[in-house]
Design goal:
Number of domains: 3
Radius of gyration: 31 Å
Largest sheet: 6 strands, antiparallel
Number of strands: 37
Helix content: under 10%
Amino acid sequence: MKTIKYLWTLCLALAAFTLTACSDDDNGGSSAAMQINQIYLENVDDEVNQDRPVEFARLGQLLRIEGSGFSGLKKIYVNGYETYFNNALMTDNNVWVTLNAATPIDKADADVRNTIVFYKNDNNKLVYEFTIRAAAPAVTSVDNTLPKAGETVTVYGANLQETTKVTLPDGTEITDGIRNDADGKWYSFTVPSSADLTKSGSITSEGANGTAKSPTYFNDFGNFITDFDGNGELGSWSATYGTDDLVDDPLNTGRGKVALLAPQSLLDAGGLDAGGNGKYWATAGNDNANDDWSRMYTTIPAETSASDLAIQFDIYCPEPWDLTGQLEISLQNNLNGYGWGSAPTKYSAEYTNTATVWVPWLNTEDGSHTAWSTGERWQTITIPMTAFGNYDPEKAPDVTFQKIVEDRNGGSYRNFVLFLANSDLEFSDDIKYKASTFNLKIYVDNFRVVSTKSITVKDFNDCSNSTRTNCSTTLTDSETKTLLHSYVMDKFNCHFYVITRHAHFCTSWKFTNTSNISCSEVELWSVVVEEWSMTSTFVLC
């Protein structure tokens, strides 16, 4: 199939070369009026629609512009940006142009934005309205995935400029009050009271560069580890905190009971000393069916890659958190390895276990620190499953959710554990942080497993089952025939007939050309070579 695509592309180039010099004289071409009939997206990687009519295109894409009167064309401007085109690949009826990555989009002047200007001279130019987009928008994270009505949600990603419409999983459409980052790195909205927040799924957004979807973890209540309100029974041994240590949501948002990383009894005693650790917040253990995560297979398939999974939880940290204190999370009891006792946390140490440590005030790229807080709001934290030692893809590639579940169920205890560690932190030999007394009120809630698999929104529907022009179809004799038609030049057709059961095509095109050859004198010699012993392949141009 790839050979077919390469032949198709080469056929286009050969035809364009053949017909380049076939126009009238240059002076006549310069005076002829230009007309645009249709713009096509050229994509040899699209096996179904390699020459697709489009109403918009993205930077970096190759366009074929079909019309008339192009002979004598001197310049092309896209969104006001002068864009190169190859005269050798131009006829009076077709121009090929690649949208330069430097072309302005949202920063283009309003009077030229979403236009292509074809210029012969000051008296002969054509302005054609055509939507130009940057790369497709993408969502990387959401900062509040279990929001309440009236709360703000910020969606992060790329190419999210000018988001004008947000649709929640229940179908609620939001068009007012959307805030946008000028560089397209985020947008935010307020959750309306009319939204049904029991419906889970993706947040869908529409903006200048098209449609984007978040992962399906918005309003995902299906896979709680513990919510401190009945889902996930708390441990009750001496090393754990219990239900009596829980407090009401201080913001009164309707989240019910929540946990303090350093419970009030510990804060009343002066806080957590340097080098110390709080007790565990932990689920009950092997006798609790909730701790068997195979129950989650109904919504997270067992074969899901660890790279598409995360632990999410909600946190409220009203005061600046800096320089001391770390949250340790373990997927299995007694298998921690970070920050226990008076030993320092070696952030970059190569532990092999089912634990991780979260230090929001630490820049994990360079070891610098910045005071961190959520302000007067709850915020969602997403920790990739690959951050847990055993599931680091460099150590253990191809780990699935089933493997994670089996590890938990095969351990001596399958408790989910979290606790505040207040040890010294060593980022590197040169960057070390000495712990001090920890006395902040930091609230956490709703620990859960979620799928973080990204969702790609296609620009065009797949027409593989369509019977319209340029789509493969199955004929009445039940034999699938692949026929690619590319009407790309003046009365020029390329037909590649794919012979059933023949998978090895080796077709070489050889041609020579010299300068100063008139159109009628151009000869292109094709040599078809079949290196394998098989029925001949017919290539007709």
